[in-house]
Amino acid sequence: DASDLLRSSLLHLSDSSLVRSTIEKAPVSRHVVQRYVPGTDVAHAVQAAAELRATNRQVTIDYLGEDTLDAGQAAHTVDTYVGLLRALKARDLTRFGAAEVSVKLSAVGQALPKDGEKIALDNARRICEIAHEADTTVTLDMEDHTTTDSTLSILAELRKDFPETGAVLQSYLHRTEADCKDLATAGSRVRLCKGAYKEPASVAYQDAEDVDLSYVRCLKILMAGEGYPMIASHDPRLIDIARALASRHGREPDSYEFQMLYGIRPEEQTRIADRGHQMRVYIPFGEEWYGYLMRRMAERPANLAFFLRSLASK
Ligand code: FDA
Fold first, then answer.
1. What ranges do the domains of the chain cover?
2. Given the CA of residue 232, which atom of ligand 1 is nearest to it?
3. Signal sequence: where (predicted)?
């Protein structure tokens, strides 16, 4: 239908460099970007983290960037995470993992044509070491389906030294129930989301309802298992189901957590935290906000109208 068409057009636009440069050059609607991305620098991210902590929310911080084909850029990303983790620790924000980081392996070298997987592993290991020194953790974001096997194998390597390293699984993929079974083990942190990339029918459910049903099946596996489920969704129905499953399995409030994105349903975030649940907010920061923002627009075309209006009014 029309909304599917719009969604898939927006996901295509997220790959369009012409549209990207046009929007970036426009005196863009800074406040629209800022609703989802608090700023470009480490200092902005740390400030946003401190503000969320003050309202009882935990955070995971992502330095924006993906699919780099430049080893120098990958090294810059690692340095930025190192600086970020040290700045968070200096502000006493990392204690008990209150502020952690999320890393896209394609930003630290996974897509490099030569030795990409090895470079990404080494770079991610360095970030895990610094996170460990700061008493906190790393979660590996999940990207498009062509990277899933590589990301899960890098995760397994990292977890030999840093068992607290988290994974992300996407319920839109057919394979994900099986991946949940593999990862529902003691000490394993798994963030379950619906999935945000444009994927073919050969590997992914295309219907929103099928994605939701798969989410529930995956959630049942994770909640019944021994691991630490992280329910990453703004969907009220899925959040209710997660709460019911947690209580059915007698889970204590510190044995799972809810997660939402910065700027999305902020009142609901504080409401869930105030009810005694753990709520962690994913904060993206950096210059490379374009692909991230387009995926958020694709999820909710109403935001697109808001975005275009603000472009026109500048
Ligand atoms: P859905 O999109 O169905 O939204 C449910 C409701 O939430 C909507 O009806 C609306 O009320 C509200 N809502 C949703 N999006 C909104 C928006 N943009 N603006 C305003 N309201 C909105 N994906 C991925 O592929 N790899 C990853 O590593 C991650 N990581 C990740 C971490 C965290 C903490 C979160 C919350 C999400 C991700 N995602 C992700 C993104 C995820 O896959 C998914 O695309 C989005 O979370 C949207 O799906 P929902 O489950 O929120 O449901």
1. 38-288
2. 36
3. none
Concatenated DSSP letters for 55-89?
Answer: TT-EEEEEE-------HHHHHHHHHHHHHHHHHHH
DSSP state string for 162-215: -TT-BEEEETTBTTHHHHHHHH-STT-EEEEE---S---TTTB--SHHHHHHHH
The answer to whether 168 and 143 have CB atoms below 8 angstroms apart is no
According to the model, what pLDDT value does residue 249 have? 97
Helix count and strand count (H, E) for the chain: 13, 8
Mutate to test the pocket of ligand 1, among 194, 213, 219, 293 (most ligand atoms within 8 A of CB): 194
pLDDT tens, position by position, 34-62: 889 999 999 999 999 999 999 999 999 99
As given in the structure block, the two tokens for residue 52 are 């969320």
Give CATH for domain 38-288. 3.20.20.220
Closest CA to 312 of 27, 75, 70: 27
Best of 14, 235, 259 to mutate for ligand 1, by most ligand atoms within 8 A of CB? Answer: 235
Report ipTM for this prediction: 0.96
Ligand 1 binding pocket, CB closer than 6 Å: 141-142, 168, 170, 191, 193-197, 232-235, 259-261, 264-265, 282, 296, 299-300, 303
Model pLDDT, residue 111: 95
Distance CA 152, CA 141 (A): 10
Report CA torsion sign: 220, 208, 10, 26: negative
In three-state secondary structure terms, 39 is coil
Among 314, 313, 311, 300, residue whose Cα is nearest residue 10: 300
Residues of the chain below pLDDT 70 = 1-2, 15-30, 306-307, 309-314
Catalytic residues, by residue number, are: 141, 191
Distance 71 CA to ligand 1 centre (A): 30
